[in-house]
Amino acid sequence: MCMQRHAVSKFIESYLLHKLPLQKYGLNPDHPFVEDYASCQMAITPNDFFPEADKGNILFKRASKWCFTTTGLQFLDDNTRLDADLVLLATGYDGKKKLTDIIPEPFRSFLEYPSGVMPLYRGTINPLIPNMAFVGYIESVANLHTAELRSIWLARLADKKFKLPKVEKMCEHISQEIEIMKKTTRFYQRHCISTYSINHSDEICEEMGLSSWRKNSFLAEALSPYGSQDYKHME
């Protein structure tokens, strides 16, 4: 991790520890903030979340092993029990498995990389699978904006308004992105482009033959943040 990124990560960690009662409830993460950011695992705290915890309406429990009982849950780490009328298992969604289930061989095997990351060029197409695209699979810090930009790219590609690089070049580009992820976070298999999302958008614009400079002046380009509104006129 570069020194600048490490410093920014430490600053944000200090701010969050000051702003939120993470230490009070034993919620301090055991990894740096940048790893969550790089894998799109940032959470938004609902209104009154910690005030409700202060009232005892929300309980926190870290446990690596647990099981069901007739009245709720039992935590095997310390052998404590929690009575509950309803238990919700937030297991997430195995999107990659669902995709591989509907794709026949030999194309199914092309979605498997040794790293466990699904290999997609521009986050949209696999260079080895013809006539198929995957929009919205690879995450960013602004999924709707990124999916829209990729959809524009895909539509222009279907209209033959630009040509793709050679398959070897696209595979090389995919490998480079995966290596960036592996160096940034242990959660790289989620495949999130948050650490290079602006560069990702710039490359898509340039590949479509459009300017990657979306601001109306040099100062704005250099000093102001980028957002989805900067890409609303893709002509």
TrEMBL record:
**Source organism's superkingdom?**
Eukaryota
Q: Which cofactor does it need?
A: FAD
Q: Which GO terms describe its molecular function?
A: flavin adenine dinucleotide binding; N,N-dimethylaniline monooxygenase activity; NADP binding
Q: SUPFAM superfamilies this protein is in?
A: FAD/NAD(P)-binding domain
Answer whether the UniProt record assigns the keyword Membrane to this protein. Answer: no
Top-level enzyme category: oxidoreductase
Enumerate the UniProt keywords alphabetically: FAD, Flavoprotein, Monooxygenase, Oxidoreductase
Enzyme Commission number, as recorded: 1.-.-.-
Query: Which InterPro entries does this entry report, sorted A to Z?
Result: FAD/NAD-bd_sf, Flavin_mOase-like, FMO-like
> Which Pfam family name is an example for this entry?
FMO-like
Provide the family line: Belongs to the FMO family.
**PANTHER family, per this entry?**
DIMETHYLANILINE MONOOXYGENASE
Record-given protein name? Flavin-containing monooxygenase
From what organism does this protein derive?
A: Linum tenue
